[in-house]
Amino acid sequence: MAQDHSNGGLSLAELARDTGSELRGDPSYRVFAVAAIDQAGPRELSFVHDGRYRSFLAGSDAGAVILPPAMADLFGGNRLLNEDPYLAYARAVELLHPPPPARASIHPSAVIGDGVELGERVRIDAHAVIGNGCRLQDRVWIGPGCSLGDRCRLGEGTVLEAGVALGEGTRIGARCLLHSGAVIGADGFGFAARPDGSWHKIRQIGDVRIGDDVEVGANTCIDRAALGSTLIEQGVKLDNLIQIGHNCHIGADTIVAAHTAIAGTARIGRRCRIGGAVAIAGHLEVADDVTITGNSMVTHSLRQPGTYSSGITAEGNRSWRRNTARFHHLDELFRRVIRLERRLGKE
Amino acid sequence: MAQDHSNGGLSLAELARDTGSELRGDPSYRVFAVAAIDQAGPRELSFVHDGRYRSFLAGSDAGAVILPPAMADLFGGNRLLNEDPYLAYARAVELLHPPPPARASIHPSAVIGDGVELGERVRIDAHAVIGNGCRLQDRVWIGPGCSLGDRCRLGEGTVLEAGVALGEGTRIGARCLLHSGAVIGADGFGFAARPDGSWHKIRQIGDVRIGDDVEVGANTCIDRAALGSTLIEQGVKLDNLIQIGHNCHIGADTIVAAHTAIAGTARIGRRCRIGGAVAIAGHLEVADDVTITGNSMVTHSLRQPGTYSSGITAEGNRSWRRNTARFHHLDELFRRVIRLERRLGKE
Amino acid sequence: MAQDHSNGGLSLAELARDTGSELRGDPSYRVFAVAAIDQAGPRELSFVHDGRYRSFLAGSDAGAVILPPAMADLFGGNRLLNEDPYLAYARAVELLHPPPPARASIHPSAVIGDGVELGERVRIDAHAVIGNGCRLQDRVWIGPGCSLGDRCRLGEGTVLEAGVALGEGTRIGARCLLHSGAVIGADGFGFAARPDGSWHKIRQIGDVRIGDDVEVGANTCIDRAALGSTLIEQGVKLDNLIQIGHNCHIGADTIVAAHTAIAGTARIGRRCRIGGAVAIAGHLEVADDVTITGNSMVTHSLRQPGTYSSGITAEGNRSWRRNTARFHHLDELFRRVIRLERRLGKE
């Protein structure tokens, strides 16, 4: 993005104070934007938080760099030392690139239902549709083309980007951010088999409740409960294209990467870190503080904190063909080895 | 969801009759809502259909419970005995929580093309766009912000939730339900390689045809055929975020869980049960009555009914690292075992 | 789709010339549509480009067939011989089924921001929202309900189907096609862990830049960069429901099938062919001309051209249960075989 240098910039003294960093360099030096370490110029602030980009430090033209103290000697210019450079960077971006202030306004093309309650400085963009009886607290921002079913409630400062759909009765806390195309509160997937093999839909009469400070990625789906509520606790971060089945319960501060699917009635603990493209079966429990690496398949409860994995990494097609064919005989191989061991007797 | 007790409720005599159950208890006792067995109160009806929740029965305050006859003795209160408690429950939810009656109306912000034919009691919500020559039969309901290309046809009582997009010429049967963000009739993915390595798009001039009583989940995509039709037969149930490639043919009453991808020109039989996050290659056939468990990878035709599986479940990260590294030498291991067997000679 | 025969059709002489094929048959014979080889009638053109459908040739009623020269003798009627029948077919479809001409128009319900620049013959459909300062070049077509953030730029002839969302500052080249529900420029997924286990959002201040002739499938997501740009080079073809993480760089003419997820800061080469349901980790490189087969898991850089694979195909559930259980002891099995080898000594 063309960096906007029209702001007045910030002095390194200000940045050190507001990011809780120790300054080594010129306190009055001003930077106007953040940039990656291999691209930053003299008017820009950069950061290095682990070894991956340290090789760029020596040749960097950055006006200042946020660094961990252990790497202080790798850069000759202005340094902001911080034990957690990534968190300090997160704060610096906000200071140097504040979001434009939201203008409170209701676009004339928006359709507002009966009995809707709007807080202060609410913004509703073009072609949004707000169902009857919705309550939007202060500074809620509804993007263009969003659709809220009847009786939704959104907490202070929550933002829906373009084209988000909320089913009726959805409740979302404060300061949440839902990206475009997210669908909250579509029917859970519940059918009873009829004797003739066809399916009888189970009406899904529950709802979705989302806590404060939750982020929901683009085109992610969170289904309404069959009965009761699908629960997303505060601080949960969901990436794009994720499926959360009906009656799931996701614990606070759990983070889930893109393309992961969690089937119905799974109960995921707090502070879990779930990689991308993971598949988690329904009706199971994952304990607090569990990490699941990308592409894993979880079919049983994981009751102890720790890191869990599955999946086999790609190899050359020719060797893969041989190995994968062998997999289908793996049990037989075990039996053959056991037989060999028996024939050889005790060691 | 806050249960709405404002309806008049139903007597157990009525519920027994309308769900085909045998009542053990007070025929004049009235319940007003359904609830989960661990949450139901005296004015609510619950159900237990398998062993998973039986432990809650003894302590339940439910006003009545639907049970299989074999579990009749596990609950002391009013019981509705049914050989298929889940199906009986499905019916009870409809009786106690009927959907609000749809009000026929065309919202003034909807844009209706030329030559559109509308049946009786059609509802078209705000900001929907109906292309030229579409035909919507009686009681069709088009949600807010939906977009129908030219010449789509929708059968009686079919409902599109908010933000569904139908490509031109899509045909959908009666009583279907398409959830928000579903995209039906986007181009199939077809390109011919040019000699220089770039791609020449194949115009996709086919369509999508969907039978009666089909459900399509949120953000699910069904592509139009290159030539001819992508076919979804009656009674198929598709969950969220599913991909159905061009020219697929899905047989009647097949059910597919979320995040499954079916590549182009696959032919799936009737009454199949396909789990979530399954990947099915194109140009193959799956027989009727096949079950594929979640996360499986299907690259060859499955010609016999039965249950098919693949995928390896998650384990502790440390042991996974060792096992997965070994997988890449699995063929070599077979060869080593064969060599050992040869050295030891005949048993 | 009901084929529209109202066009005047084309003579085989014209088709031979415009597809660069050698005609064997009647140059004045006219065909009016294309159709699959097992369905084509005397007024239709079909094609067979590999062995898969050759068996239909002998009995086909097609008015003419595009064939590779090696298969010329398998069909008795009019033939158009071409070394690349699929590419010739692609051209023939365009000739016989040209897309309807786009009518330039701005629908009165569209909302156009301040300072928007529109080229010649731009079309903007109902309920679309164009942010401030957007620039749309000649013949751009914005479908119904699309939303463009501020300062987006779209090149000549680019088409957005219904309900596409572009984040602010997105730049898209010429002749691109984005299908319904695609979300370009949602925030990348970046959070810094706070000491208490909660997450601090990293403001994503970069953008997405897409080259010429790119196709983006329905409900596919391409996230904006944290800093700088997520780059999709010219000629890239992305299928439906794909996730492209922030700061990815996808090389020219790479093609990716549905449901694949590419995590942040991955750099994919040119002319790669990536199957469906592939999961690619972030911060790695894939060389030019790499093929990755469907359902593979890529966690390390692939630095050499070639074909890479992983994934284990489905088998009967009973044998799968045995084999997958054994996998968790694979490392142990290797150790046991090594022990046996040691006991037997040198050969």
TrEMBL record, chains A, B, C:
Record InterPro entries: LpxD (IPR007691), Trimer_LpxA-like_sf (IPR011004), UDP_GlcNAc_AcTrfase_non-rep (IPR020573)
CDD domains, A to Z: LbH_LpxD
Domain of life assignment: Bacteria
Keyword Glycoprotein: no
Keyword annotations from UniProtKB, A to Z: Acyltransferase, Lipid A biosynthesis, Lipid biosynthesis, Lipid metabolism, Repeat, Transferase
Example GO molecular function: UDP-3-O-[(3R)-3-hydroxyacyl]-glucosamine N-acyltransferase activity
UDP-3-O-[3-hydroxymyristoyl] glucosamine N-acyltransferase non-repeat region domain location: 30-95
E.C. no: 2.3.1.191
Annotated GO biological process: lipid A biosynthetic process
Class in the EC hierarchy, top level: transferase
List of catalytic residues: H246 (proton acceptor)
GO cellular component: membrane
Pathway annotation from the record: Bacterial outer membrane biogenesis; LPS lipid A biosynthesis
Transmembrane segments: none
Catalyzed reaction equations: a UDP-3-O-[(3R)-3-hydroxyacyl]-alpha-D-glucosamine + a (3R)-hydroxyacyl-[ACP] = a UDP-2-N,3-O-bis[(3R)-3-hydroxyacyl]-alpha-D-glucosamine + holo-[ACP] + H(+)
This protein's record includes keyword Transferase: yes
Residues spanning the signal sequence: none
Gene3D superfamilies listed in its UniProt record: 1.20.5.170, Hexapeptide repeat proteins, MurE/MurF, N-terminal domain
NCBIfam families assigned to the protein according to its UniProt record, in alphabetical order: lipid_A_lpxD (TIGR01853), PRK00892.1 (NF002060)
Job of this protein: Catalyzes the N-acylation of UDP-3-O-acylglucosamine using 3-hydroxyacyl-ACP as the acyl donor. Is involved in the biosynthesis of lipid A, a phosphorylated glycolipid that anchors the lipopolysaccharide to the outer membrane of the cell.
Family in the record: Belongs to the transferase hexapeptide repeat family. LpxD subfamily.
HAMAP family in the record: LpxD
Subunit structure, as described in the record: Homotrimer.
Official protein name in the record: UDP-3-O-acylglucosamine N-acyltransferase
Record lineage: Bacteria, Pseudomonadati, Pseudomonadota, Gammaproteobacteria, Chromatiales
